[in-house]
Amino acid sequence: MKKFQFISVLILALGLFGNCGYNKIQALDEQVTASWSEVINQYKRRADLIPSLVNVVKGYASHEKEVLQGVADARSRMGSIQMTPELLENPEAFAKFQKAQGELSGMLSRLMMVTENYPDLKADKRFGDLQAQLEGTENRITVARNRYIKAVQEYNTTIRQFPAVLTAKMFGYSAKPNFSVENEAEISAPPTVEF
After folding, report:
1. Which one of 35, 117, 121, 187 is CB 3.0 to 4.6 Å from 60, fit for a cystine?
2. pTM: predicted TM-score of the whole model, two decimal places
3. Residue 85 neighbours by CB under 8 Å, 6+ apart
């Protein structure tokens, strides 16, 4: 009789622990980390392209020093941020990272607007190649960010569901931060187009 009770308790314990969500939390946590690494990889690719692009533009538009300096400064600020998986665990550092990336994107947009004033620059093969690479990289960043957002959504949903929520609390797992827009009201308004 005692042997039967022991086996019953053992089967019950294995059933509970086997369905506690620990392994799924581990797999999803790794997916979030891998997705974040891909985002970082694409941001690094963009940062590596910027000096070449700025140098080509300098040759044609040397008097646009403010924009060129702004791009260089924004890239420099990005270089000062440690882009590690631990960044995900620190909401302040994550917000600082997002802000720096936003500033860099804004400065690159300004740089592209400046180039519109220089037909010779737009015709330059090196500039065209770099611009195409940068556009491709921006698309890759968008794809990588979307994958990260989906991985975070699945992870955060899982650690909030029963019984995984108990396991997550027991082992100290908390929600991962997601990308957000700094000023949602600003981007929700339709852009004005003037001719």
Report:
1. 121
2. 0.67
3. 33, 36, 37
pLDDT at 151: 93
**CA-CA distance, 151 to 10, in Å (whole number)?**
34
Number of H helices, E strands in the chain: 8, 0
pLDDT value, residue 154: 93
Report the SS3 class of residue 61.
Answer: coil
Q: What is the dihedral of CA 144, 101, 58, 112, to 10 degrees?
A: 70
**CA–CA gap between residue 155 and residue 141 (Å, rounded):** 21
In this model, does residue 145 exceed pLDDT 80?
yes
pLDDT confidence bin for 57, thresholds 50/70/90: confident
Domains of the chain: 31-178 (1.20.1440.20)
Q: 90-128 pLDDT, tens per residue? A: 778 888 888 888 888 887 787 777 777 766 666 677 777
